[in-house]
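Intended use. Records such as the Tetratricopeptide repeat protein entry shown here are meant for training and evaluating sequence-to-structure methods. They are not intended to support clinical decisions.
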Amino acid sequence: MSATPNIERSHQRTKPTYKKRLILVLCVLALLPLAEKTMSTAQAGVFDSLLKILLPFYDDDRSLGDNPPQDTNKDTSEGMPQTAESAFAPIAPSTPDELDEPNTEEHGEYIDDGTDDDYLPNADMVDIPDIIFDDTLNAHDSTPMLGYPDLYALLSAEFGVDRGQIGESLTIYKAESFTANATAVFERALALSIEYETPEQSLAFARAWQRQNPEHIPAWFYVAHLALKAGDYHEASTMLAMILDYDEKADLTGILTGIFPQNPDEQRQLFTALQSMEDDNPSLSVLRAGLLLRLQDYAPALAYINKALKDEPDNLAFITLKIDILKESGQESAMWAFIHQKVKELPTIKELHLYEIRHEIDMGQLGRAWDLLQVANRQTKDPDVALLTALVGLDIGKYENARTVLTPLLDVPAFNSRANYYLAISYERSGNLTLAKEHYEKVKDYEHVLDARTKVVGYYLAKDDVDKAIATLVRLRDDFEIYAIDSYLLHAEILLRQDKKTEAQNLLTVANREYPDDDRLLFASFQLLQNELSDDDKRFAIDKLLELDRMNPAYRLADIKLRLSQNPNDLSALEGAMSLAQISSDDPNYDPQLQLEALIVLGNHALSQGNYRAVLDYLEMPYEVAPDLNAGITLLHAYQGLGESDKVDRLLADLQNRFAFGQNRTGQEVQEY
């Protein structure tokens, strides 16, 4: 541990403080063997970022096994070039003590109370320039804090990150990054700066560090990227010139990722800055082409991208940019000729095949897409292409061909579940429900498992095997908790269809206790029990539903029905019912059954007012499209009110045929309708 002697050298304190420091060092040394044994546990992963600083040999991939750390710094991973010394992910440590004045008795003797509340920085720390602790750094105002990174300071900083004390932690990390051999500390400081500070602040820090460490080549890339991001195009062009002077063929794609300015004036400024550089670098040619594409200056953009492709004809990003330029400039024939040429030159690149295939699918030309997919599947041997081939085959009715393509995917772990799902669909559409059920039961991926298990439940119910249907639902919520609520709701529906209302009620009670804040479960319980609830209980339940999802049309309709039952002339409720009845079919909230219920509410109100023509306006057409018993009864009353006996007789006969309406009633009761 190179940091250990440094702690003793840099913190010249009173004797009791030496004791605490020595204990800390001994603890760290004592725990190292244990850390080696336990690195494979999930807890070790908590300290990965710190261990990379403390242990140069530390391998996080090896130590974490099945629990790799996740990069919390999106900008660093996506928008910056990565080096071997990658930015750290935050850790979750405990809280260190704050620095404060020492405790003394009356005679001035130092009392060590076992805390660090009395810690005083040494002279070296006092001499650190104030700029280190400001929001930004200047290149000539940074002085190393110690000879090497201070372990205690780094621990304190990382603990501060976990507590949300980002400013204090950044101050420590930035200061410690200016010590010797502190590249990893710089990476961590820069990652935090990019996540929590402005591009200008991050650039100031990176520039200061780079100028103190001029031989660190990756820092050139960082400064160039941040300068572009901050809009400092002079600084960006200076750094890019340095990079190209070092390696004229350097890959600049990492620098250029995600930093294209959106403002046309800034785009022109960047283009002007780039014009002063060498023309031989393909990445610079692509950057210029991209800027000109955004400025809709297509001819020079095409010239620059052609120049880049001359150096790197197989670069997919360059090829894609040329396709975009040709498309945006309206040169579609040239675009397709270029795509066909590249498909011939690079037949194994699936993206080139898929460009034309997706175009044909978007145009509805599935037959043409199928033909192209046969070629692409054969040349690329890519599972994504195979899966798309099968999907198009299913859509055009080539079920046997689709199964031929899907079957090999069963041996590809990442595609096994989806292959089973689409094989099940192919057998289902072919009428082989037994094989369809077998494949549906093998579906395991989250995207398709709910639909697959629901189909299995349907197959069991079709055979009147209720026990197996319910067992399938229980297994679904045991294996996939994300779908537990769907499982409970369908389970309760099955019980209700069996007239087992008490069992359904008990099941929903259990589900509501397990998931008390789920509105779907609460609404299902409300629908089941609404005829037995008092108005006060109904109001409480509906208010809770609206609190959970105020815009849900079903909950709004329940609220409207309750309000109209208490006040039939509630104008606000009637307006709400009208708005629900007028939801268009292309609205995500459109539900034909709910719309019909809203129309029935309006029809019943019109009936109560003696406005029979309005009842017909609301319900005649919906009943013809989708006959409904409640809508039919309301219409029947309206026809009677209008004295249209022929329509009464026809509608009554239709209700009797469709819904066995009145078959268990006396003739007098039927006549009342």
